[in-house]
Amino acid sequence: MVEKQTIQVPADVPKEKEQEYIKNIETVTHGLRRMMLFAGDQKIEHLNDDFGSKEASPEDADPEHMFKIASKARISCFTTQLGLLAKYGRDYSTVAYVIKLNSKSNIVPVEVKDPLSEEMVTPEEVIQFKKDSGLNIVGMGYTLYLGSEYEAEMLKEASEAILKAHQNGMFFILWIYPRGKNVPDPYDPHLIAGATGVAVSLGSDFVKVTYPKLKDSNDQLVLAEKFKEAVAAAGRTMVIVSGGSKMEVPEFLEQLHNQIHISGAAGNATGRNVHMRPLEEAVRFCSAISAIVFDDATPVEALKIYTNTNA
User: How far apart are CA 77 and CA 79, in angstroms?
Assistant: First the structure.
């Protein structure tokens, strides 16, 4: 069993908001410095590429499918845009939510224009929405494209949003992806370590990054060793790894176990690998993932949880 750790409250959290901040962090980490984030921001980011694909369950065509999963599965929190939460949130009020402040579609490729994703809603609007709706919004998130020609604008917005979230007792997750014409290899382990270093420099509580790829090796143990640099560079910012496109369950669980127990990552953020499955299977898959994240289960033990259709 993972040992509980003392939650370190950033200095930009006011004294009167410290307990709220601690409560929000404990909600998603169980005090273990681990997270299983269910990512639901793809309706804008990927348009209907995931939800309408041949690989997806027919249930995934309906946005409410993600909320059903979030309400039934063992997850830390569910992240989505404010508008989608406004449509469905009151029917799923037991879920802990993270509001994504910015999003962009995948229509314009990086080869045509360096990516820019600006706030769709401000932190102040999220704070007001939380008060008005009564929903359990525990944090905010923002995607930053490191290396883009618009990097400076996004760095400024992200920095200001992190401060505002902390001042109101909420935690912050940065999605950081190296992208742009000046980024030759967005999966370079050293560059990803640079991204996690940016996250801690901005004061983010968590950083979500893609797992590195090596041009000369696909050895999972080598990749996990290389990823140690990113975890070390993040310091007190917890590193969670993007789940990526849908893959076979045993491979996914093995990779996740390596990320946590070799690299030292704090957990993962999974979207497509969860919501593209039917509800009952998605719930079992979340249980398997969370068993590795929170209970230190082995991949074999987690796979048994996933395959136990009578659970």
Answer: 7
Q: Are 146 and 137 in contact (CB under 8 A)?
A: no
pLDDT at 6: 87
* Residue 208 appears among annotated catalytic residues: yes
Q: What pLDDT does residue 117 have?
A: 97
Superfamily of domain 15-306: Aldolase class I (3.20.20.70)
Task: Give the chain's residues under pLDDT 50.
Answer: none
Query: Which residues have C-beta within 8 Å of that of residue 70, sequence separation ≥ 6?
Result: 38, 40, 78, 92, 95
State the catalytic residue, choosing from 130, 208, 226, 246: 208
Give the Cα separation of 293 and 267 in Å (integer): 6
**pTM for this prediction:** 0.97
- 177 catalytic? Reply is yes
**DSSP type of residue 245:** S
User: Which one of the listed residues 21, 92, 177, 306 is annotated catalytic?
Assistant: 177
